[in-house]
């Protein structure tokens, strides 16, 4: 197809050249000009059509990519995550905090009442202790409910991770070498004070290291130094 179109264009151009050679000494009329223009236009038809087809193919490919990307984004269900999944996870965690706080207060309150109870009346003391022990056991049942709530949050996070990871994999998104962000004052303070919150098992500072550090400290020398300062202050006050 392309070869035949190129051959036709070449033939048209050859006709124009031949015509110009034959009539180069004659006056060119408007009709001649129109005829030449028509021949030239026909000679360009194949090229214009080829360009149009290429442009159409390129724009069609771009449109297909955009449609595919929209489908991938829709598959993430971002509206559902924003309106349902993430808010639900936040509410579940809030409920875990409330349940843990209430259970802790109940357990500590019951333990305090047991410690403050008068054991002189054995029967009354035994009844109170039994009642408070039951309260403590009932309060400990919060762990089952909070475990279920946390499991729901974990499932939500896993679902979001699965969707986003699949989206990134299908689009073949590559990580960029982002410039290192300047450390803020708050980040520096947290790093220096090691305010990272509770650590996982095997992470953070080991209790044995803390004990060893305390054992290595010479508290006797510190106490002696404080006594010297105190004695000197008392002497100074005498002459004040």
TrEMBL record:
Pfam families per record: CheZ
One GO CC annotation: bacterial-type flagellum
Chain intervals for the UniProt region annotation (Disordered): 178-240
GO biological process, alphabetically ordered: regulation of chemotaxis
GO molecular function, one term: catalytic activity
Coiled coil: none
The name this protein goes by in its record: Chemotaxis protein CheZ
Species, as recorded: Cohaesibacter gelatinilyticus
């Amino acid at each position: 197809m392309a070869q035949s179109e190129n051959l036709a264009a070449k033939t048209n151009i050859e006709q124009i050249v031949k015509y110009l050679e034959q009539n180069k000494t004659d006056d060119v009329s408007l009709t001649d000009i129109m005829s030449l223009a028509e021949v030239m236009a026909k000679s360009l038809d194949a090229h214009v059509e080829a360009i149009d087809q290429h442009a159409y193919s390129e724009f069609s490919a771009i449109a297909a990519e955009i449609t595919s990307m929209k489908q991938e984004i829709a598959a993430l269900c971002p509206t559902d995550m924003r309106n349902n999944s993430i808010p639900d996870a936040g509410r579940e965690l809030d409920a875990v905090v409330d349940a843990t706080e209430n259970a802790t207060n109940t357990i500590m309150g019951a333990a305090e009442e047991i410690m403050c109870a008068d054991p002189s009346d054995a029967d009354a003391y035994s009844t109170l202790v039994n009642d408070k022990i039951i309260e403590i056991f009932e309060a400990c049942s919060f762990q089952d409910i909070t475990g279920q709530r946390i499991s729901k949050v974990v499932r939500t996070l896993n679902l979001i991770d699965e969707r986003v990871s699949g989206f990134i994999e299908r689009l073949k998104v590559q990580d960029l070498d982002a410039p290192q962000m300047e450390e803020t004052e708050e980040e520096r303070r947290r790093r220096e004070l090691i305010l990272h919150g509770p650590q996982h098992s095997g992470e953070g500072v080991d209790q044995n290291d803390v004990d060893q550090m305390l054992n290595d400290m010479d508290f006797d020398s510190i106490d002696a130094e404080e006594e010297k300062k105190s004695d000197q202050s008392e002497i100074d006050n005498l002459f004040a």
